[in-house]
Amino acid sequence: MSFPKGFLWGGASAANQYEGGYNEGGKGLACADLISGGSLTTSRQITPTIEEDRLYPSHEATDFYHHYEEDIALFAEAGFKAFRMSINWTRIFPNGNDETPNDAGLAFYDRVFDACRKYGIEPIVTIAHFDVPAHLSEVYNGWGSREVIDFYTRYATVLFDRYHEKVKYWITFNEINTATLSIGNFLSLGLQVGASSFIDQPDNMQLRYQALHHQFVASAKVVAYAHEQFPALQVGCMISYMPRYPYTCHPNDVLLAKQEENMHSKFCGDVQVTGKYPYYAKKYFADNGFSIAFAPEDQDILAKGTVDYYTFSYYLTLCVSADENVTKNGHSMIGGSGVNNPYLEQTEWNAMIDPVGLRIALNDIYDRYQLPLMIVENGIGVSEEVAADGQIHDQYRIDYLQKHIAEMDKAIEDGVDLIGYTIWSAVDIVSASTGEMKKRYGIIFVDKYDDGTGTLARKKKDSFAWYQQVIEQNGLAKNETK
After folding, report:
1. Is there a contact between 364 and 243 (Cβ–Cβ < 8 Å)?
2. 377 is catalytic
3. How remote is the C-alpha of 466 from its chain's centroid?
4. Spatial distance between the Cα atoms of 205 and 189, rounded to a whole number of angstroms
5. Cα 117 vs. chain centroid, distance in angstroms?
6. Is 333 a residue whose pLDDT tops 70?
7. How far is CA 240 from CA 81, 110, 269, in A?
8. First CA to last CA across the chain, in angstroms?
9. 68-79 pLDDT per residue, tens
């Protein structure tokens, strides 16, 4: 087997999609709590306040808040070595800018981490996973205000001070590069957009990139704090990594693919790993008339707060065309130049399934940064139901994970320093991109549905036993690696 001894196999989650208990234990209102259920159509709304006639999936989600002991015991049964999770900012600082933290919130995560330690599971904790306090959005326009840097820094340093003996691995922001997408306004930046459909928001790219800069500075400040106060801690970045393929070998397609991959998949990692803005980003800003305001100390802060390891999500690859005569599907994420890749299958939500692309991504990232890597999200969202025999037969998920793990094995043989893999997701949770329960990712089924009904009972899917075997043998069987 290529996987090293001590490899961190596990599963992942996010508080705003999983935790629930949105108004319990002194928790404040988060931006995610204002996003109603639905789909990517206009039926899914961002509301300025909670409306009684709407369903908000994050309010209960799949209720880790009350099921954490049961769920962590299931993770241990599956053999997890790691559990990637996030802390809900408003459970610690209900308004985001409070002077003192909420003791009940701190105590809740103490119990979670103690449960993980009981079973020998390493927590990998994301400080901000698409989670901005609603008060900061309303009063400060979220990360559009430089003041939020200090609020985040206070929050993160409280976490380090409290949990440094219980949590070794930290991530500052989830998929920080999604701030470059318009749908990232509310999810990751908390920019005030008013009542709006989730997908069709008012957009101000200048403001988005300025808000992203504030996140870079905040991340660097808390990394530096951890290094100074708790040298044993490892603090990483997290990128939504989507390799771009040129639709043809025409030089214009190749150039476009490189340019888009730079600005979406590589830009944020470059800043957080090297401590400075890359040359191509400066040209992109100049070409588009953007001007990023730097405080005099910002460059030094970025340089001193570079991350220790690099984590990323990988779900799909994209294909782009510069030819105006080629029909586009808008899936490039930046620029609207995406086209369907004729060599790949798609999920029912139109994501290209590309296991080999993961090996390509691993080699590209490791070649660029030479840091330890973790894949902290990888999985397939599928509509699925309990079968007549009372089980969930998700062979499609087993096939998906098996093919991606096989490519991880090859990347490690290539020389990539891959230290962990947490599938998305450990348990069925609310989809961040669609707001639906029917888009299920977990190896553990939760009896919860889009209309809010369900018992929340947990049930192991077929993929649970398969993944349990993978972890036990530290990789795939020989006949699965081909």
Report:
1. yes
2. yes
3. 24
4. 12
5. 23
6. no
7. 23, 29, 10
8. 13
9. 999 999 999 999
The tokens of 269 are what? 């990692």
Catalytic residue, candidates 377, 384, 407, 436? 377
Q: Which tokens sit at 29?
A: 């209102």
Residue 482 CA, chain-centre distance (Å), reads 29
Amino acid type, 278: P
For residue 81, give the amino acid letter. Answer: K
Confidence of residue 334 (pLDDT cuts 50, 70, 90): low
Residue 132 — very low, low, confident or very high, per pLDDT cuts 50/70/90? very high
Q: Which percentage of the chain shows pLDDT scores above 70?
A: 96
In a domain, 345, yes or no: yes
Identity (one letter) of the amino acid at 156? A
What does the pLDDT read at residue 482?
57
Whole-angstrom CA distances from 445 to 21, 184, 325, 426 are: 20, 28, 44, 9
Q: How far apart are CA 103 and CA 101, in angstroms?
A: 6
* Cβ atoms within 10 Å, residue 297: 9
CB 53 within 8 A of CB 11: no
Going 246 to 247 to 248 to 252, the CA torsion angle's sign is: negative
- Per DSSP, 236 falls in state E
Euclidean distance between CA atoms 75 and 82, whole angstroms: 9
Domain count, the chain: 1
Q: Is residue 301 part of a domain?
A: yes
**Which residues span the domain enclosing 72?**
8-480
Indicate the DSSP class of residue 99.
S
The pLDDT, as a whole number, for residue 198 is: 77
Q: Which of 60, 122, 175, 260 is catalytic?
A: 175
Q: Helix axis angle, 147-163 relative to 205-229, nearest 10°?
A: 30
Domain CATH code at residue 350: 3.20.20.80
Q: Which residues pair with 84 in a beta bridge?
A: 12, 124
Query: What dihedral angle (degrees, nearest 10) is formed by the CA atoms of 379, 273, 332, 202?
Result: 100
105-114 burial code (b ≥16 CB/10 A, e <16): bbebbeebbe
Instruction: Report whether 219 contacts 173 (CB < 8 A).
Output: yes
Which stretches of 230-319 are DSSP H helices? 251-261, 267-274, 279-288, 298-304
For 417, counting Cβ atoms within 10 Å of its Cβ (0-12 exposed, 13-18 middle, 19+ buried), the class is middle
Query: Is residue 1 situated within a structural domain?
Result: no
Q: Is residue 198 part of a domain?
A: yes
User: Alpha-carbon distance 67 to 70, whole Å?
Assistant: 5
- Whole-number mean pLDDT of the chain? 93
Is 407 assigned a catalytic role? no
What span, in angstroms and rounded, lies between the C-alpha atoms of 423 and 12?
6
Contact 163, 112 (CB under 8 A): no
